[in-house]
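pls read this protein:
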Amino acid sequence: MDSATIGKLIAFILYLGMMIYVGLRNANKNNSSADFFLGGRKVGPWVTALSAEASDSSAWLLMGLPGLCYLGGIKETFWTALGLIAGTYLNWLFVAKPLRKCSISFGDSITIPEFFTNRFKDKSHLISILSVIFIVLFFTIYTASGFVACAKLFNSVFGLPYHAGLAIGLVVILCYTITGGYTAVCTTDFIQGALIFVSFVISAFIAVIALGGPSQAYAAVQNFDAAAVAGNFGEAMKSAFGANAEYKGMAIVSALAWGLGYFGMPHIIVRFMGIRSNAEVKKARRVGTVWMVVSYVGTFLIGTLGTAYLMNHGTLLGTTAEKLAAEGINLANITSFGDAETVFSAVMQNMFPAFIAGIFLCAILAASMSTADSQLLAASSAIGQDIYKGLIKKDADEKTVLNISRFSVFAIALVALLLSLDPASSIFSLVSYAWAGFGATFGPLVLLALYWKGMTAKGAIAGLITGGVTVVTWHQLHGGIFDLYEIVPGFVVCLVFSVVVSLLDKNKDPEMLAEFDKYKNMAD
């Protein structure tokens, strides 16, 4: 083992050890399910903001999107990032404060399924059951993407076998999620969000300087593109990314539609419920939005400048300096999207000394773990609080609910592990599917629950079923209109059925209507 590997290894051990320490340190703070799932609604604006954005962005921010840029997908990345930034801001603006107020007003709800059940006075608990099914289904897929990112990172940095990297990521995430709960997850997410922010700012700045400044960096990327088009890579890139140069129409709509997903992400919007006060939402919104903008600018810079930077340093993913010299910059060997998703890792290792590179590479672990832990916690809360205590044993004590939830974290993680066993798994595709699932099933319901007095339980049930089925079915179809991102038809179908069925439902609950008026009149 050489000194460079040892330096990176020390950085990883220190980082992973700190995450586990945070979990153990917060273990004794969970005296109730409200503490474990929502931190007792005592989390401040900075931690709330960075926790929400870090758990949102996941490893695809540092691996999926830079990889897409690296292979020439700058237009798709731009429109996707624009949709996500807009979605983040609108989510903070229109959902954060109303959701905190409404969840308190309707039974002091601490999970999203419980909120839906209380808000719509669903005595059948069918809303809760359907919500939990979709949460477990899509969060398992989403969590798998985080495990894939961990495995790819350990493989690219240390040469560890893919499955060994999976095991390491699984063990660390489980350690602090099971022991520390919401407070530990938010604290680790805050640390991870700060690390992601700093790594993007510093590495992007150094990449521009190393290439000679902004104008020289732009020229270097242009030269790289010209060489790529002249070689086999140009045709392969065009085939792989659907002629990105003509990226327009349906493709732009699909990319922008990612922003719709925010309204229905349980692991993000639950942060709004846990913030300390309504007055602190505005500060959290500003912090979160700035974080998003800087991070996505960093994604563009690392993804696009990474090509020229690695070229200047005799390295390209999936090939070697010798091959480049012998083949006259034949880039056909790097058309694998799996290879391209390690571009951030490759740039960090070429740019910094081993230990510093190791610290910044931990940002990828941060992105992976901050999302996976939040999703595991949200899914386990749905099983423990909404299924076990809500349906199976309504008089269950707090300790039993916590134990059931912790076991659920472990079980869901194992299923996610099984889904991520294939080394060819794409982080971007896994996240895309899960994102659409949540955005289309929960997004319209959250907005209607907060802003429409006439929404009913039957309307919510109809929306959940039709939205979820639309996403799953649309995802299996290809060609023509079915190339449209499934979140769009799923969101529209869920919204239409929720409204239509609610209007047809004559059994409006007087208690529900009265509570809605009380919620709307609550002081900010």
